[in-house]
Amino acid sequence: MSKGAVFAREERTWRDPDSGLRVRQVTDHPSIHHHPFFFVPAYDAAMRRLVIVSYRSGKPQIFFEDRASGELVQATARDDLAPWSIYPSPDGRFVYFTAATGAWRIDLGSLQEELLAEFGDVEMREKGMVGAAMGTTALSASGRWWAIPVKAGPVSRFVLIDTENRTSEIFLERDTIGHPQFCPDDDDLILYAGPLTDRVWVTDRSGKKNRRAYEREDRMQWVTHETWLPGRRAIAFVDWPRGMRLIDLETGAASWLTRFPAWHAAADARGERFVCDTNFPDRGLHVIALNGVAGDGITPLCRSEATSEGAHWAGPFPYNDGPVAVEARQHTHPHPRFSPDGSRVVFTSDRTGHAQVYEVELERGAT
User: Residue 363's pLDDT is what?
Assistant: First the structure.
């Protein structure tokens, strides 16, 4: 399998037995597949392509579904791709990714790859399967700025790449930096996860306005899976397993969004609702409406039937006394994400024995 290889449509569809919504399985090869992480877009803004990672060649590679034809196209053929680093540009032209110790982008039209920065003799990511160990990166809403945490010995360097001028600089150093996310309404505001006991931080692109956005209440509180709420300059996070809370960045106040036990949750482009998966127990995927018009604002979407590895999620916060080794392969988690137009949700499930990419349509259209 090589760069540019084209694979015929693999989809199959059915109705979810609980909600009646149409579910489409996008990939069907007996290997690992997943979409980008739950706070990373899987589609370009115009929804011409759905970007995924496929291991069908034996190594993780960037693929995309051409939504007009349904064909799957292999975009990379590398031995060193960091699969959770991928970030599609809003205009649909590029996918940004890290590989080995470099920062790259690929033009999805020509499949030409371009090295934007080389980080030298570094580890790149922390050890493990979760948090900063995943190696996620952040692209600004304009597509101009790309932020990458780079593990280098005892410190994590926050590197900012100007994608227009092809320059890079270190703008912040600290003990750990994970899950970076640009504010969707401000290219100069970046959310990131600090230590697991002190997670929610924000900074500007200069690093001079680095500050804690939320301090957990006590040693029992499990703060996780933080993400932006578009249009509000506010950060939502999961207070596991008690529900979700919202931090107003102007006042610092944290209010409850819902008491529903969301696991990974991300807002739609308008900031009107969240989609989430669930665990312990797995209750499937749900939409949480912020206006609460339907009962508690909770609407079931479909079953995920993913194995959702991570036994530590079934107990109390495990990290107070330092790192804990966990078995939590991320491709076993659904990580649901709205499409840009809000018409569907993409998710991953290993329900068939291999992780595949799925979409669930939010309206009951024709089969």
Answer: 81
